Amino acid sequence: MKKPVNTTTARIAAKKPRRIGIRDVAKKAGVSCAAVSRVLNRGPIRISDAKRAAIEKAARVLRYVPHAGARRLCRQRTETIGIVFPHAETALSHAYLTEMLRHIADVARRKGYDLLLEFSRDPATAAADRGRTDGLIFVPERDTPPAVFQAWQEAGAPYMVLGGAFAKVKPEFFVDVDVLSGMRVMTQHLLEMGHRRLAFLAGIRSPEKLHGFGEAMVMAGIRPNPAWSEVCGLEMAGIEKALDRLLKGPASERPTAIAAANDELAIRIIHSLNRRGLRVPADISVAGFDDIEIAERFTPALTTMRIPLAEMAERGVLHLAGQIESGSRTQMHCLLPATLVERESAAPPPAA
Fold first, then answer.
1. What distance in Å separates the CA atoms of residue 54 and residue 64, rounded to the nearest whole number?
2. Which of 25, 31, 110 is nearest to 63 (CA)?
């Protein structure tokens, strides 16, 4: 026989606990709701230290969490940072940019900002859109025209460029990596291993990295072979054609090492070399640039230059947050070093 159900008890058990609201905090602290809102949402208010402490204590005791919308209204901010990428169809297909975005999100979250992603073929117009965000981060491409950086500066809104050191007219605020010195270090590393016949391949035009490669070669007393420096793209067809040219002729006249301008290209070069029956690094060494996440897990693990993406994101977001919160327009030109990471894809050249 079933026991009778106490419907009153069932209703009480099913009833959800009431959400603590701003009125509860105000009542416990003995102040107005407006005072609670402004104190907890860091809004402008003239109030005694004792009342401020009472409000904060009441909120802790009651475990009150301010409503995000109310907080933003009180602060007259969206608490959102926009990230502008130049092209929707390509931006996040690159591991480098995906990892950068992850680090930006980590720092923004710690600072209490949401992110809004925008993909634009006309990044200059994004600088003028201030309604949805408090500030913007721009991730430029190599061919971003100087007029874009000028438009961002003239718009007057808080912004930060992650990249941009390549521009002839530098943005007012940027954090970037010294890729010229980084490629020079990588090339010197290959030279110190005993390589003398080195090639340089890039997915896109990269004058700074090519310059660093050439500097290291000249410092070692070696004249770079112009035919062994090429922009081949990231598609396998272009990579295959470039390798056809590099590897024609007898082994004694081929490069013994390839310095790639980024890790994605280096990995695709290794795939192509493997299909040709060449072993990396026993027959030919390959080095990359960026140290993307897969570089360490790839076989062979990739020798590369590590770009400090976490530090780039940290410096960029914190400076942008400072612009937003204080109105400061202090110029920031920050160039960070890349670090050599020695792994398995580069070794001394094969014996003659």
1. 13
2. 25
Check which CATH number belongs to the domain holding 280 and give it.
Answer: 3.40.50.2300
d(Cα 105, Cα 90) in Å, to the nearest integer?
20
Predicted TM-score (pTM) of the model is 0.75
Any domain includes 100: yes
Look-up: residue for tokens 């010195």?
Answer: 181
CATH number of the domain bearing residue 47: 1.10.260.40
Pairing of strands 304-306, 339-341: antiparallel
Domain interval for residue 245: 179-307
Q: Is the separation of the CB atoms in 131 and 96 below 8 Å?
A: no
The 3 state secondary structure assigned to 4-58 is CCCHHHHHHHHCCCCCCCHHHHHHHHCCCHHHHHHHHCCCCCCCCHHHHHHHHHH
The answer to whether position 339 is within a domain reads no
Residue whose C-alpha is closest to residue 311's, from 303, 319, 323: 319
> Tell me: the pLDDT tens digits for 27-86?
888 888 778 777 776 666 788 888 888 888 888 888 877 655 555 554 556 688 888 887
DSSP string, 92-151: GGSHHHHHHHHHHHHHHHHHT-EEEEEE-S-HHHHTT--SS-SEEEE---TT--HHHHHH
Name the DSSP class of 349.
P
Give residue for tokens 């058990």. 13
Report the alpha-carbon distance of residue 240 to residue 154 in Å, rounded. 45
One domain, residues 303 and 321: no
Q: Same domain, yes or no, for 300 and 243? A: yes
63/98 same-domain check: no
Q: Which amino acid is at 125?
A: T
Number of domains in the chain: 3
